[in-house]
């Protein structure tokens, strides 16, 4: 994953989602596994084999490091997915450094992130209005689709009219109009 924090967040969500989909839909008929290696571990190993061409030739230490990185990224993807489920993909673009740190801080629980996103969705109308304005564009940007169908000027005009003032006035500094 590169230096682009927005694409990185989107990739983390995709990693989490793909893992969950595979884990829920795939029946592992590989028979018994060795001690400490369940079916989820086999799925992770298969995914890592697809992602890393050198997987089959890695020593056990390298494999262990790749597994640990995979699980950390999957965990952060789950945390970002909680936010986007309630607020939409635009949150990946306009989240504050404070919110980003909360996602990365594993002391902050997924349940707390869920409560924050539910609170914002239910109580911060200015933020919700901004997110709803940006969500279609954010979706197309993340999915590398054509954005020429969006009226970017109307989004910029919306922001200039001051509709984002409530981002800080609401008492929540979780979102910011500067990424």
Automatic annotation (TrEMBL):
It comes from Aspergillus steynii IBT 23096. The lineage of its organism: Eukaryota, Fungi, Dikarya, Ascomycota, Pezizomycotina. It comes from the Eukaryota. This is Uncharacterized protein.
């Amino acid at each position: 994953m590169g230096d682009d924090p927005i694409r990185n967040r989107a990739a983390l969500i995709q990693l989490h989602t793909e893992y969950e989909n595979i884990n829920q839909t795939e029946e592992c008929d590989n028979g018994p596994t060795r001690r400490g290696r369940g079916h989820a571990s086999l799925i992770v190993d298969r995914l890592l084999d697809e992602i890393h061409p050198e997987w089959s030739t890695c020593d056990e230490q390298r494999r262990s490091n790749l597994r640990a990185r995979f699980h950390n990224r999957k965990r952060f993807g789950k945390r970002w997915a909680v936010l986007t489920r309630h607020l939409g993909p635009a949150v990946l673009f306009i989240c504050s450094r404070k919110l980003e740190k909360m996602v990365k801080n594993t002391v902050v629980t997924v349940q707390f992130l869920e409560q924050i996103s539910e609170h914002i969705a239910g109580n911060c109308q200015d933020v919700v209005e901004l997110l709803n304005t940006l969500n279609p564009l954010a979706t197309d940007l993340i999915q590398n689709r054509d954005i020429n169908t969006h009226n970017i000027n109307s989004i910029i005009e919306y922001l200039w009219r001051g509709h984002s003032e409530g981002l800080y006035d609401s008492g929540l500094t979780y979102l910011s109009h500067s990424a």
